Amino acid sequence: MKLCCSPSRLATDATARPAASSTRGCDATRQTAALAIPGGQTYLGTNRPYFPIDGEGPLRNKKVSAFRMDATSVTNAQFRAFVSDTGYVTDAERHGDSLVFQGLLLKGTPPSPAIADAPWWRMIRGANWRDIYGPGTADRQIDDHPVVHVSSNDATVYAAWAGGRLPSEAEWEHAARGGLGDVLFPWGDREPNDTDFQPCNIWQGRFPHQDLGLDGYVGTAPARSFAPNGYGLYNMVGNVWEFTSETFKVRSLKKEVIAAHAGKKGFRLSKGGSFLCHQSYCYRYRIAARNSCSPDTSTSHTGFRLVYRAELLNWM
Questions:
Q1: Is 217 within a domain?
Q2: Helix/strand/coil (H, E, C) string of the chain?
Q3: Structural domain count of the chain
Q4: Residue 111 is part of a domain; what is its CATH number?
Q5: The pLDDT value given to residue 23
Q6: Between the CA atoms of 13, 17, 22 and 23, what dihedral angle is there, to the nearest 10 degrees?
Q7: Which residue range forms the structural domain that includes residue 167?
Q8: pTM, two decimal places
Q9: Which end of the chain is less packed: N or C, by CB atoms within 10 Å?
Q10: In a 10 Å sphere around its CB, with 0-12 CB exposed, 13-18 middle and 19+ buried, how is residue 263 labelled?
């Protein structure tokens, strides 16, 4: 497994953690702004898997009910409102550290532990959703960028406060396809490249040493950037990974698959890839691509967006 995606903490404890002091913020403005996603028959997975070991295939038919989805991932400003209302403390803050891509660290950052199989990931003391590169870097946080250094535990608590929930994998893929059917990307099948086509925020250049930033960004982009897909959703691939409501499961009896995912019981499934993905290394900005991490893991390239009941507006 290529660990550019999401290395995980060794220890996970999804139960021994405080809840937010308020469990229902019910941000009506945010909910009413969510976009309607039609229900019906849809696709899940692909018959063109690039990482079969991740369980990307085969292509299956699924039926989903109509729902509403945020046009963007949750932003720093929105998460700050949640923390202000509830006093919530994230997993990264409780642990005292979080994973930061080395290329984002500021000059003068103290030495830090590297992930053995992916040394471009550093465990930075004091990194969290406020101080995204470590202590004293809160001024680098931008309100309209996706919140990062949040775990799936944190996302679940936020969702309850906001009156929504994390999407299932089928809902997420259905929304990402934007009505186009069996396609690789939210805009169709045309591949992004390092020359003349950058429809999303991914890596351009030689990973992990040089990101050319040809798409306009090194690191995260604003949550509402690039062209939306057919359902009006922004950055369904690239920018930041997005948590789903599901645990990561690969149904296979092959020894190599079982070995690759050993020790991942209870890991959460995320979708969409991030600004660190590139076809030469982590080709996971495809709709069918999948990723996993422990419930308390947080990184500088993972966030989330919410879905809501389709009938929400009938009672607000």
A1: yes
A2: CCCCCCCCCCCCCCCCCCCCCCCCCCCHHHHHHCEEECCEEEEECCCCCCCHHHCCCCCEEEEECCEEECCCCCEHHHHHHHHHHHCCCCHHHHHCEEEEEHHHCCCCCCCCCEECCEEEEEEEECCCCCCECECCCHHHCCCCCECCCCCHHHHHHHHHHHCCECCCHHHHHHHHHCCCCCCCECCECCCCCCCCCCCCCCCCEECCCEECCCCCCCCCCCCCCCCCCCCCCCCCCCCCEEEEEEECCCCCCCHHHHHHCCCCCCCEEEECCCCCCCCCCCCCCCCCCCEEECCCCCECCEECCCEEECCHHHCC
A3: 1
A4: 3.90.1580.10
A5: 47
A6: 20
A7: 28-314
A8: 0.92
A9: C
A10: exposed
Please answer whether residues 304 and 72 qualify as being in contact, where contact means their C-beta atoms are separated by less than 8 angstroms: no
pLDDT averaged per 10 residues, the chain (length 316): 61 45 52 88 97 96 97 98 98 98 94 91 97 96 98 98 98 98 98 98 96 98 98 98 95 74 88 97 96 96 97 49
Domain membership flag for residue 201 = yes
Asked if 201 and 278 count as a contact pair (C-beta separation under 8 A), the reply is no
Task: Please indicate, yes or no, if residue 21 is contained in any of the structural domains.
Answer: no
For residue 18, is it within any domain? no
